[in-house]
Amino acid sequence: MPDNSAVQLAMSSSPAGVKLCTSVCLILVLLLQNTSAKPLLFSQNNSLNNSNPLGLNAQQGLVSSALKNRNYLRYFAKETEQFSKSRPIPDNTVAQYFSNDALGSGTLSFLSRLPVLHGLLVSAGCNICKILVTAIQQLFIAGKTQAEIVTAMTKLCITFHLQDKRVCADIVPEFKTEVLTVLDKLVLSSDEICGIALGPECGSPYNPFYEWNITLSDKHKPPVVPPTLPKTGSPTVRVLHLTDIHFDRLYKVGTNAVCGEPLCCREDDGKPAAGIPGAGKWGDYRKCDTPVWTLENLFQHLADKQNEFDYIVWTGDLPAHDVWKQTRSEQVSLLSFLSQLFDKYLPNKPVYPAIGNHESAPVNSFPPPFIKGNNSISWLYYPLANSWMKWLSPEAKATVQKGAFYTVSPFPGFRIVSLNTNYCNNQNWWLLLNVTDPAGQLKWLIDVLQAAEDKKEKVHILGHIPPGLSDCLKAWSWNYYKIVNRYESTIVAQFFGHTHFDHFEMFYDEVDFKRPVSVAYIAPSVTPFPELNLGYRIYDIDGNYTKSSWAVLDHVNYIMNLTEANLYNKPVWQLEYSVKAAYQMKSLFPSDWNDLIARMTKNSTLLQLVNKHYYKSRDDGSCDSDCKMKLLCELKSGRSHDPDLCTDVGITDARMFYSVMKRTTSC
Predict the structure, then answer these.
(1) 179: domain range?
(2) What pLDDT digit, counting tens, does each position of 415-460 carry?
(3) Under 8 Å between Cβ of 85 and 116
(4) Torsion 451-457-458-463 (CA) sign
(5) Phi-psi region of 246 (alpha: psi -120 to 50; beta: other; left: phi over 0)
């Protein structure tokens, strides 16, 4: 993703933007559901002065004080200058809009002093988040109802062009239940709430995000034996990796692909403007997902070459990016549709899935098991278990129904573990209620890995969100990193998706963070969103024989060049590259991937090639010094929120680190 600030991303017309926009807008709106005497966002004994860089005084009118702060106003004017020039708003619009609105006189006093509020929401960032959260206190004190607040915020969304009318009308109701239910039980400061919404560089989320630690087995870690390549002629297994399919049943050829919404190329987007090409036959680079017929074409292609792989891993994200208008029943029907495709085209191939962040409705909403009743996630996990059980062992059903994770042993001495990484997702608001090892998944993982170590099994781990992304909560990520360190001789490969790009993440020994211990493979997406070719991957793996290492030996990527497919009306799934050949790697052990990073620091041709493949050959991969630093940092970061992992590639402080890591988040 482009290297925008968090709030710029929040207000952009992308699914990631809609999700973060939802978080920010609902901070401004839906936290106000409680009409008791105690403000929801602020504890009675909490002073705002410590968390507010602008020096707000809670006893002297929070908003008025902020607006009289000349340093703040100079900062704000600078931040909004360019945006205000490009998107002027009529004089007095703010005052006219709110004068008779449910938001009340306190907010009118605040907003009428900000004729460039639309620019503020787009570019002001962390400080303004805290100002607006503070302003909510006045709305709350005014005793506005949920309905009034939701109506007002929908109007605000439309008036300030945060999204178009259709998205604004649907996005607040879509997320209302989740956010209200969660935040009704919390007391958070502005520093905490903005830290959650915009990241820890903005504020300090409350302690549970950072202070829990998982307990490892009391059995000692066995001595580490350096890996070796299998003997020539040893059996191999080939594995197809599909991820982030994001197929769109409503895609329509020729429609507007520049619709201004997070997802386009649909009939209700209308026709394109004069001189602008409409949505392509086989897909489109411009914020559009995978057409159904393109997905069918992929499965036909895979059926024709099914002798080239033995089983399939699918690491999540099936629905389209229309995250503002999804329903539970629609999400379940999509799972059924994909299952039917596998049955139709690849009936004899086992599939080992992992759940993505888009499988739920609303997106990213995955309540832990202690949430019961209508808010429970059983509406998804039970159909998921029914769909997956034809590929899994009977004992996997209980953990899928509980938390959408499981383990299975396809061959003797080999085990697959599939994790639900939505329990580390920083946009899963349910985790605010109890973030400590949700669903007991990491404790379960330790038990599975210890049993595998005792039986001398080798393990592959599947998941959706790579643990090194800033999307993954710090405590969960760091605990997972610790587990990988402890069981480095058992875990021989990890497979993730989510970013839509082609890359990897390194794990290092926690002693000094120099010795590489594991690598996470992050596969390219099927969907072309955003501005990518379509892709998939096949791994060569040390195969089924006694004392097999089950290590990854090579992988090859295939892409559909969307420009050529639409130009000639002929989709072709072509070999993009073999990783060993392209990067001149002798093997794919963690040390080899670490060596690749070292060679990229000195070899600009190699750096450009890796960057080209990162974007699935969408361009030539040109990579300047800023790009180089960002790419290398991403590859070195197997755990989130740790700037120290990147000091040797030019990262000098936390602000720079978070700017870097935003490139691969929230797809």
Answers:
(1) 6-205
(2) 999 999 999 998 898 987 888 999 999 999 999 999 999 999 999 9
(3) no
(4) negative
(5) left
**Are residues 600 and 528 part of one domain?**
yes
**Residues contacting residue 415 through CB under 8 Å, at least 6 positions apart:** 407, 408, 409, 448, 452, 457, 458, 459, 460
Higher per-residue confidence, 636 vs 161: 636
pLDDT band for position 573 (cuts 50, 70, 90): very high
Burial grade of 239 (CB within 10 A; 0-12, 13-18, 19 or more): buried
Q: Is 70 exceeded by the pLDDT of residue 40?
A: no
Residue 571 preceded by cis peptide, ω within 30: no
Contact call for residues 190 and 116 (beta carbons, < 8 A) = no
Helix (H) / strand (E) element for 301: namely helix 292-304
Residue 64 CB contacts under 8 Å (≥ 6 apart), including other chains: 109, 110
- Residue 391 scores a pLDDT above 80: yes
**3 state SS of 4:** coil
- Please say which residue of 147, 182, 205 terminates a domain: 205
Would the pTM of this model clear 0.85, i.e. be above it? no
Tell me the two tokens of residue 112. 């009428």
Query: Following DSSP, what letter does each residue of 150-187 receive, concatenated?
Result: HHHHHHHHHHTTSS-HHHHHHHHHHHHHHHHHHHTT--
Mark whether 303 and 193 lie in a shared domain: no
Sheet holding 458-462, edge to edge: 406-411, 414-418, 458-462, 491-496, 516-522, 503-508
In a domain, 527, yes or no: yes
**What's the confidence (pLDDT) of residue 426?**
86
| Domain membership flag for residue 460 | yes
In this prediction, residues 270-294 reach a mean pLDDT of 97
Looking at residue 266, what DSSP letter applies? B
